[in-house]
Amino acid sequence: MLACSVTFSGCSDEDSDSIQAEVVFPDNVNPTKINQEEFSVELKQGTSIIPFEIKSNSAWEIYLSFDDERFCFAYPYEGAGNATVDLCVKKNLSDERCTGKMHIVFADGSTKSKIVHLSQKGNIDNDENDEIDDLINSYYYYTFRCPLCNNPNTVLLDDIFNEDKADSIVTCPYCEEEMTYEDILMRMYNLK
What is the pLDDT of residue 130? Predict the structure, then answer.
């Protein structure tokens, strides 16, 4: 993965000078810096997975807030030290933009926290190149751990976000535990 030339890190007082808190997006994302702690990211309309790097020597946690409906999640949403995090975005089927914020909170206090303003294109913003990207990106897979046997399972990301499939059953090939796509979605958002 190529690292974006714009990184966002911060230190404010003597006690936190030794804490590293940096968020690095890949080159194709082009974040816009708002200030030392905040930046914005424009998301395409289609389903996508955007990997980004957290560089830290402390614990961190990610919270998402949305202006209307949930349109993405981050995985893993917590950790300690350096990590690659996937921002998983579902396709926006509405004409309007989806907007929200991703809060990355570092253990050493709010002076290290980062806020990423997220804005996803709607149908009105879509163009031919986005339609081609949508076709390619509709085959992203999501891997999760079975809640019973803890073995990995894989499903199409679009299937998880498809409301028509919410009650459809997914069976773990290892232990035959049954779960619905809605169950999987709830675990992704850390609601279960």
Answer: 52
